[in-house]
User: What shape does this take?
Amino acid sequence: MGKLLIVGTVAFDAIETPFGKTDKILGGAATFIALAAAQFDAKSAVVSVVGDDFPQKYLDLLTAKNIDISGIEVVKGGKTFFWSGKYHNDLNSRDTLSTELNVLADFNPIVPDEFKDADVVMLGNLHPNIQRSVIEQMERRPKLIVLDTMNYWMNNSWDELLEVIAQIDVLTINDEEARQLTKEYSLVRAAAKIIKMGPKYVVIKKGEHGALLFHEEHIFFAPALPLEEVFDPTGAGDTFAGGFVGYLTETKNVSFNNLRNAVIHGSNLASFAVEKFGTARIESLKKSEVDKRLRQFRELTQFDIELQ
Amino acid sequence: MGKLLIVGTVAFDAIETPFGKTDKILGGAATFIALAAAQFDAKSAVVSVVGDDFPQKYLDLLTAKNIDISGIEVVKGGKTFFWSGKYHNDLNSRDTLSTELNVLADFNPIVPDEFKDADVVMLGNLHPNIQRSVIEQMERRPKLIVLDTMNYWMNNSWDELLEVIAQIDVLTINDEEARQLTKEYSLVRAAAKIIKMGPKYVVIKKGEHGALLFHEEHIFFAPALPLEEVFDPTGAGDTFAGGFVGYLTETKNVSFNNLRNAVIHGSNLASFAVEKFGTARIESLKKSEVDKRLRQFRELTQFDIELQ
Assistant: This one.
């Protein structure tokens, strides 16, 4: 079975949308990634850090999904990373109400020995130096290293970010961030510039407008599934990433053609993530529901024009 | 050969984009629709009105593309409809600098006898009463009536608009207009409401984010082709509509499955329209270029996930 190493935040979120609000609930990029990847036949581990205020039930939840949590450090007397945000009415933008780094401020990731030969490494959004230190701990070059980042690191750790981007295979990034990273408005040009920075593949996430996968001169596009209602977009991008790497770890095939399928699997899982607050929908997701919606993706995108 | 009747503006445009500006050039919804539809094996006619300031060379251009212009009234001493606009830097929004209705103010469309049995009728954006008068002139119910409209008529001719929408098969509309028409933010819900108003199909155009086709519980999505550069978006929506109806007229098949293909053909032609000012790119477009780009659409969207 393929091994997937996931590095990122395990955290508390408090979310407010037009449909309601939550108290502190389970959140964090690595949480969403791992729960999404758990839909696939892969051996996953999460490397992260929490405080001892973090409920055992959340750790048990991950363990129950066959996710190795030996790499989640619990800091005695420490407080868990906390984010809270409020979405605007259209759910396409949000205000961050509070970000408390807490134990994340001194996070020093330690890759469990058993995962130093992971097939796929997913580096969730973190300081680029932390992401790089994980790559350096690997005993052999993974088949695929995927990295997610955000504008904060472009503003504050530009050189370090470029250094780690040079070492990875796939960069996942949203459209505005791709533009900021490359100073190119056209996403086609932005992707070409990013590929010159090192990655063989670039995934540009456009939220409700889908995701683009770039490789050499090739482009693949997965729409977001049109939904009657988006309830809470929190974690959709990380759920996408989890489906993407989970599928690639299961199939152990990192060809462009298989990455196309992986983008569909990621979009498919992300379409569930937004239906309830936080991780609730992904936690309860059944294989039959996933397959049914994959059929909808096929119906949504496949056409039948004969070409000479 | 299938017959296609196109009703809409034939006009002068003056366009300013970040890349340059034009004097008065050939424009108008019916012009873009007809030039796009001319890529297909269909017998097309345009019903419109121009002033006698309208250059013969533009009429000759349409004739050279085998477009019947006997339904284009030339008003002696009249001036042709004129629109000018300036695009913002991202090309996603624009300011209208001037709209001179001129002869369009008294437009009374007369359908040529030969096209009163057209297979497909494309009603470009016009006053809903003008659109309705065309439907009333048809000798038999066309296989498909497609109608395009815009927010202006929602603001100024609400009842008349609903009346004509109740008589058509396909409404093409952009995302913001679909929301305005239905008071629904979700496009899935908006489309469902529009279908209750009469049309069997709804096409929601999202510009650079593609187009959605709705029918009963089914949804099909065609992305816009990601381009290195968009030069001038003017007419892209009408070019889309022209490709859509041109293909349907050629194939004489108005099933949902064939409408899916038609949406791809429309998106494909629209991807050319934006590459040059006005109609320039569509005028010179070769079949081999069209086919090559259809292949790109296939590569862009087709995937290969086995489902049980």
